[in-house]
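Continued from yesterday's entry.
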Amino acid sequence: MTDFHTILFAFGLTIFAGLSTGIGSALAFLTKRTNTRFLSVSLGFSAGVMIYVSMIEIFAKARTALQEVYEPQPAYGYTVLFFFLGMGLIALIDKLIPSAENPHEIRMVESMQDSQTSENPKLMRMGIVTALAIAIHNFPEGLATFTAALSDPGLGIAIAVAIAIHNIPEGIAVSVPIYYATGSRKKAFWNSFASGLAEPVGAAVGFLILMPFMGPMVFGFLFAAVAGIMVFISLDELLPSAREYGEHHLSIYGLIAGMAVMAISLILLY
């Protein structure tokens, strides 16, 4: 049975990861131009961490857990099945969100400078719907961070940091249109900040629904799905975003650096 302090720590990590959208919102107001090189490397780094830890660590942990219930071959088969089901879940969420409000669509601070002359209700709608879209995306991310932290606090920290990095441009995407629609930095910041609350909510729902049934089988299925979710987010969101923000090579350098840092941290943990 997971102790109270571990559960509290896991919730704390999801709050940290989710509310980093507020960092993006603050950056939008403190800078006149988007630091594209920094974001490109950072998003690539985040993708590297998430891909490496998903394929090397989380997938393996899921398979090991399922082998406590099933023979090795079916355990491996179920791990693969739920890995792709996790991908399918996040792909379905992504598909249901219109592209105009999709948080994967890149928005830069300077690109909105001329938007003050646009019709305010349209900008406000863009900001609010983007916030809702990001909240929907953040729900499974919160569950992923929480589940990983319950299994391995060090692993949870790595995932939380990676998700926090990729939430920064999402904060920009929410706050900029709302600011230009309302002229209020406070409203823009709090809407952006609130969109990240879906991560601890996702963790809370996961805790309430799944914890009474948590055992090797449920843990294995969930962890395999989490691995699929994070790989999909990395390939569909983080890497394309990193390339659009900066030079192609910068995103790849960030990717390799993220994998290397994650690999070294895992070596030091064992």
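--- second protein ---
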Amino acid sequence: MMWLSIVGFVLLLAGVGEVQSQEKLPLVKIVATGGTIANTPSGRLHAGEVAEAIPDLKKVARLEVEEIIRVGSSSISIENWLKLAKRINEILSQEKEVKGVVVTHGSNTLEETGYFLSLTVKSNKPLVLTAAQRQFTTLSSDSPKNFLQAVRVAASDDAIGKGALIVTNDMINAARDVTKTISYRLETYSGRDIGVLGFVDDDQITFYRTPVQKHTTASPFDVRNLQRLPRVDVIYSYVDADGALIEAAVEKAKTEGLVIAGFPTGSPTPAMDKMLKSVAAKGIPVVMTHRGGLGRVRINNERPYYIWGDNLTPQKARILLMLALTKTKDPKELQRMFQEF
């Protein structure tokens, strides 16, 4: 009996020691939105359930889990973005003990949500988004590892001031630069011709560069009182494309701005170009990007009616234009923003 009492006392001390050790760890807030990272063959789990199933998380940080929505990322809306940005800003400004925030998300629109948050969250504290390609509990799922690595980065001092980060598959990418490039394989997220920021290895987190485009605290975009964003549509260039879709966007959908996914050199068809010139003359901003995926479009002074989207993908140019239109419609100011953000 005495031996059992001693064992019980030792176990009690071990438990107390574990609690005290946990209290010394940084506090990381998990803001969950759903996605494959929390999905199983029988349905989506609460992010808290996912966290509980990853024991190594308890060695890295203290977690507080808050679920904003629980959907696949194809269902994410601008309303969801505004809600997410407002809540993260509240957490980082009011909950001083929080070291960083991790957003769990579906993979299809992760890059867009990440760029939106990089432009609208007003804090230097680490902001990390992560996702998974394979459902939680399935064979070779990347969900547990990506979750753990995202928390490790969010708890790291080295992640401070680097804007929104996408952490998956051992890699750290800037939300502005990253794109999902493969439908289902794990190496889907690419920094394109810009490259990764760093890596998450088992022994340490290593950053090799810092984003130079403006973000977070250097961004002028304030969404606290916004209920909607201006409508901006993306129109694709292809052989023999006419102006029918442009006309539909302007006349039917009443778009407030257009982003053109032009040919890789940053141009549309002649028929599109003619119509886009008249659209810009009406005061509707037209941003030229390209459909190729790598590299920037060059400013062409012979076409002053376009705003040139630098190396942003069309879907990210749309985000910047929506936010920019809450500030100005002046073409020169819009061009400046596309060069800085």
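The two ends are 69 Å apart (CA to CA). The CA atoms of residues 238 and 263 lie 7 Å apart. Will compare against the first tomorrow.
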